[in-house]
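agent> fetching stored inputs for the adenosine monophosphate docking request
agent> found them:
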Amino acid sequence: MHRIVFLGPPGAGKGTQAAILASALGIPHLSTGDLLRAAVAGRTPLGLAAEEHMRAGRLVPDSIVLEILGQRLGRADAAAGFLLDGFPRNLAQAEALDRRTPLDVVVSFEIPTVLLLTRLTQRRTCPKCHTAYNLTTRPPKVPNRCDLDGTELMHRPDDRAEAVRTRLEVYRVETEPLLRFYRGRGLVRSVDATGSPEAVEARVRSAVG
Ligand code: AMP
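agent> prediction call returned; pasting tokens
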């Protein structure tokens, strides 16, 4: 069974790698960021409650995230394994996850902070299929359109410099300590997340085994 968590700062490439690995393993890619953005776009009560926190780059309250993720994890396709991307992000979430399911591996994406700021401000995302582009290193074939479905790309409001700084700080203070929590359980495999997506993909595959 593959019950996988991707842990790493925003901009480390978790979403890109999660989409590739989840499809290779035939397990669902569960991104709480994507689930929350869909709730915001759908103007659901949970989405409306999450919106301001996200825009500012802060964590959304645990009760909202746990509700949204709990619904998704309860669906049949997650019974045979899952890849969590962007969850857990603090100790309370890790403990809640722990009460719900065991894990097989936690992949830690290691990358110097200086690289993250440019990666995030250069990132453009397809709102439909969630594919990420980089204006410099991986531009779309047609300017500002997704290669896969032609949808107009967006610059996420929280990928602008001010929110990015908050997100990096939140990561350092709230999320990074989870490495210790998972190391204590012998679950962590570290991956060098610098370089091309293809290079990182090979390292992730060997880490997951
Ligand atoms: P991401 O797409 O993973 O970068 O998430 C985008 C934003 O959604 C974050 O900056 C948070 O505001 C919110 N978010 C995503 N996942 C979580 C989580 N597990 N806990 C709290 N907030 C989250």
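agent> quick read of the result: Residues 126 and 153 are 5 Å apart (CA to CA).
agent> awaiting further instructions
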